[in-house]
Amino acid sequence: MYTTLIDYEALLAGHEEPGWLIFDARYDLADKNAGKEAYQKGHIPGAIYVDLHDDLSRPPSTNKGRHPLPTVDVMNELFSELGIHATSQIVIYDNVFGAFAARLWWMLRHMRHENVAVLDGGWQAWVDAGGSINTNNEKRSKSEFNNSAIQKDLIDIEDVQKVSLLIDSREPIRYSGESEPIDNAAGHIPGAQNRFWKANIKENGCFKEKELLKQEFEELLANTPAEESVFYCGSGVTACHNLLAAVHAGLEQPKLYAGSWSEWSSTPNKPIATGA
User: Fold this and answer.
1) Residue 138 lies in a domain
2) What mean pLDDT comes out for the span 107-129?
3) Does 180 share its domain with 249?
4) Is the pLDDT of residue 145 over 90?
5) Those residues with Cβ within 8 angstroms of residue 54's Cβ, 6 or more apart along the chain or in another chain
6) How far apart are CA 83 and CA 90, in angstroms?
7) Any domain includes 43
8) CATH code of 14's domain
9) Sheet holding 89-93, edge to edge
10) pLDDT above 70 covers what percent of the chain?
């Protein structure tokens, strides 16, 4: 059972096993069709394409961020469409080191499905290792997925300023307010610290070793238990990369503020901080 990361060798050995499902989550924030087009040009054999906008942010939703989290009923509907069963081993990959794949990883865990892992190094790791590629448009085979959600792993906008430790997962120049290429306002939620999600990976795009990740997160969390900390980003996507890294390091899973900066900064009268 793989519950955080899976490497190329393990995926190669198991991807044809009954009950294994592979999902391609490639996406480009600047070109919403790029991921689907990349999938059509070539993907891991058997992989089914999932779209950040059309699938993982499908309405109706729970918040007003740019990529809002779907409701429990919608997630059950989606996972049924994707053919996910209680015993399915899920593997997800993308082409940006897990930034988008981690969103689906978190959603499945939120809906109490634990057998889900992100391919370490993503699409590029598969290609570089000589993994086979095909262009078949894999069909979704319907199942009956009907789980309840874990409530304690998610907070909404009204509780953000009540938490013990709030961590912004965006790059430092967006956190500080020096640059904001996407949302209408620049800066961060007052009191939030910063851990850029790319701090979790090495130069080759694979995650850092568990021991190093654990050390870094423990320094970040200080005296706050991991499960009481809250992570956010621009739209509730790359924050999941930090959650994945923390769990992979052996810590309890932190909470997610799914609305993130896009919701906070567009809500009237919400305070905004700038600087480091």
Assistant:
1) no
2) 98
3) yes
4) yes
5) none
6) 11
7) yes
8) 3.40.250.10
9) 5-6, 116-119, 89-93, 20-24, 48-49
10) 100
Q: Is residue 236 part of a domain?
A: yes
- Number of compact structural domains in the chain: 2
Which of 128, 143, 165 finishes a domain?
128
Q: Which of 78, 99, 101, 233 is catalytic?
A: 233
203 and 115 in a common domain: no
Separation in Å, CA 47 to CA 90, 125, 192: 10, 15, 37
Residue in this structure with the two tokens 């592979």, named with its chain if needed: 22
Does residue 195 belong to any structural domain of this protein?
A: yes
| Domain assignment of residue 66, given as a range | 5-128
Say if residue 113 is in the same domain as residue 208: no
The answer to whether residue 206 is catalytic is no
Three-state SS annotation for the chain? CCCCEECHHHHHHHCCCCCEEEEECCCCCCCCCHHHHHHHHCECCCCEECCCCCCCCCCCECCCCCCCCECHHHHHHHHHHCCCCCCCEEEEECCCCCCCHHHHHHHHHHCCCCCEEEECCHHHHHHHCCCCCECCCCCCCCCCCCCCCCCCCEECHHHHHHCCEEEECCCHHHHCCCCCCCCCCCCECCCCEECCHHHHECCCCCECCHHHHHHHHHHHHCCCCHHHEEEECCCCCCHHHHHHHHHHCCCCCCEEECCHHHHHHHCCCCCCECCC
Do 59 and 165 sit in the same domain of this protein? no
Q: Using the predicted structure, report yes or no on whether residue 140 has a pLDDT greater than 90.
A: no
Residues 106 and 174 in one domain: no
pLDDT of 139 higher than 90: no
Closest CA to 105 of 187, 207, 179: 207
pLDDT at position 276 over 90: no
- Of 64, 94, 128, the last residue of a domain is 128
Report how far residue 114's alpha carbon sits from residue 42's, in angstroms, rounded to the nearest whole number.
28
